[in-house]
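Inputs:
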Amino acid sequence: MTTQITGPVFTRHRASAVRGGGGISNPQMANEDLTPWQPTATDPWDEKKARHLFRRAGFGGRPSEIATLVKLGVDRAVDLFLVVPNLTIPETGTHMLPTGEVLNLSTYSGQVAAWLWLMANSSWQLQEKMALFFHDHYATGINKVRYPEMMGKQINLFRRTALGRFRDQLIAVSADPAMLYWLDNRLNRRGRPNENYGREIMELFSMGVGNGYTENDVKEAARAFTGWTAILGYFYFNPSAHDSGNKTFLGSTITGRTGTSGVLEGFDVVDIILKQKAPAEFMVKKIWEWFVYENPSRVLITKLANRFRQDGYNFRSLMELIFRSKAFYSSSAMKALVKNPVEYVIGALRNTDQRNVSYTRVANRFLRMGWPLLNFAGPDGLPDGTSWINSQNVINRSNFASELNTRSTRGYLRTVISGFYLNRHDWVAEAKTLGLTTPTKIVDHYLKRLVDGEVPASVRTALIDYMTRTDTGRLTWNLTLYGQQKISGLVYLIMNLPEYHMN
Amino acid sequence: METTRRELLAGGLGAGLALPLVRGGLAPSWMTAGSGTEDILVILQLRGGNDFIHNLFHPDEPKYAAARPTLKIPKTKAIQLQTNGALYLNPNLAAFKALFDAGDLAIIPGVGYPNPNFSHFRSLDIWATADPTATSAYSGWLARYLQKAYTGGFGVPAMDFESSLNRWFTGNPVPTFTSISTFQFLPDPATSFDRKLEIALLESNAKALRPLAGPNLKFVANAVGKTPGDVGLIQKTGANYKPLVTYPSANSKERAVSKYLQMAARYITGGLRTHLYQMSIGGFDNHANEVTSTDPTAGTLNELLAAVSKGVKAFLDDLKKQGVTRKVVVMVFSEFGRRVGENGNLGTDHGAAGITYVAGTPVKGGLHGAYPDWTKYSGPAWNRVNFAYTTDFRSVYATFLERYWLVNSALVLGKKWTPLSFL
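Outputs:
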């Protein structure tokens, strides 16, 4: 038995900055077709496609939600994701979840738990998914920001701008207190420029490393942002710290301004950046690789980037184009990505429709999986794709699935209100409601629900066998006697399948 | 299914892995380490850009004082590196000074590459791939070493103490974990009724044939399938390890460094053939408050430097006391240094040349390579000045390849780089 090394595995968007296009490409191929996908007799809108849409535009569907999407048809289903309110959630104080669990938002873990709860329970799944994408994009960490409330505030900013315009978002991020701490712009003063933000707004947030700007542009951007600072957790422009000289930035002149209008030079930086070719390409490639598949061709990226620019850098238009496209439903996209830890954890909660869980505990388990939510160590965001999967994370995901599905109430489901225990998921009742009486029916139901039934035949056979086997011998199937033990174990085993790690 | 360590190491694990890098079959016994090809390298990355000049400096140089009015360390507080020498060490590196005096520490000042890149991740990629142009080669240099030059054939040649696999090893079967105690499967602890069955199924389901799987699914299936084997190896090896020296633990930085070094010590003393250990510590990106406003030898960077130097010394002392006879060397590096001058926020911005330390008994101690020449640089805008590199980092890699593992460095680095003399 030999295993071929299938070429190096790289971080998706990190590598993309220095990588060329995807080689030879044919714009006629289905996987690059941006025209709307419509069902046909042989290729209907079905549960598999609805689950795909829900995994990408959200965090995976609950069974009832998938049924609804199938009924609505693809057009209305996509509409449901694209319409979102101007939602923000509390950033400070204490927060009580419907289960009675109390979260303290002045703690890091409280903020993480509050967000995970919303990701699992928000009706506006794309808003949270985009907020998560932008959190990765503008990677910020509590380790330096220090105030958990500021992190909550930054995520609220992403919620509000998630399906808005890139320009508004870049300006808002530049004035975001957490960002002003994170990349030190609060300390960026006339005569003592701090280049950190001036560099990253181009390198990481808009243009990509080395993509059409020079070291001098970094310095000039830093000068233009002098005086943008934070006081008491709010943005403040300090005219006396602002360098009012003229700047030459990306070939354009930014006229120096004095007084409070000096703040407009930061707007100028954003506007000049968005006149370049790089930002649209950089953003659509990153978004495509997050939401559709890796290594799109240069032709596709150019086409999408042109659209994005024409639409005034509007994220809603871009996401609409993507979620309706043939490319999005092509075989190149379906289950081609690896779930990140949020997608795995929140997906597991939603796919099994489990609501009675402690989000403090979920946060604790989630934080072991390699994504330090709200706490990036550096400004360059996440490793992506297969880099999530290593032996430690395989174990951590497996143990989360074990706790979630199989353990008794004492471990997993206790809330912070003393004496109050949430109920463990009742797998026997669920099986009875669904009319699942035999091991085969049970196995097929959960395989279909969790992985579209797409596993090697030998795996299905082994799982059916598992239902009536113990470490020491065989048992005669009895739903009431063994259902809780065996169905929870089955779901645990399915969540350990390589297929369940795919998004 | 009880597996002895011997079986695990010699057959059970390696056979299950079907490694592309296993050539010439498995070694007959886990004790027969390759002849000189499995000398141990422990890599400690200082993430964020270690301010080289705050490590090693010329206190009498007027330009040093001019460039760093608040960061500069007065001569009275610094440690003179060599008798009659002009170079001084940060006092927080006292443990390094002890290693240096014992001839066990090589200091390479001014390590870097042409056309320095000031982006953290680009520069880390450059160090990882050993390719400053990085237009073609995307695999890590150690990944290439394992694939093209390593002939030992041991199934777990490297371990990565990180939460996600370091680019250096991409494409290789490297167990990646940050804690031993959480590195095990916990199926349904309420009962042992079908526990073993579940673990067995977890492994066999992942190993089921998937002829039509795409590359990502194949990768995941391979990773899930081999994890139970890794668990056995990592739980059993060195389970009785106890440090024989006191590792630093005064603050979270010291505890982080000590934790990972002790993990390496456990597997080295446990007799594991693994010869590459990778770990990192963050916090070096000090654009602000690198030192405290009252003391240039206190504050973030200084605590980090103390943690690193004390940790490395404790690790080497521990291995000596444990009677480890294999060669062990620690390399400490950072993706770049920082500007020559401070930025006004008690910090420094991203710079070019950095400092690399190589410690261990096999090392020929001393200064290797030249400290950048102050006469070539001038102020007053010191916060925009960068030291150019004086030693190419690929010469450092070539030294390990040619003089330590005795392999052809051109196989890994694309061409011959002149090794340094620290080994």
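Remarks. The two ends of chain A are 28 Å apart (CA to CA). Chain A touches chain B through 85 residues (CB under 8 Å).
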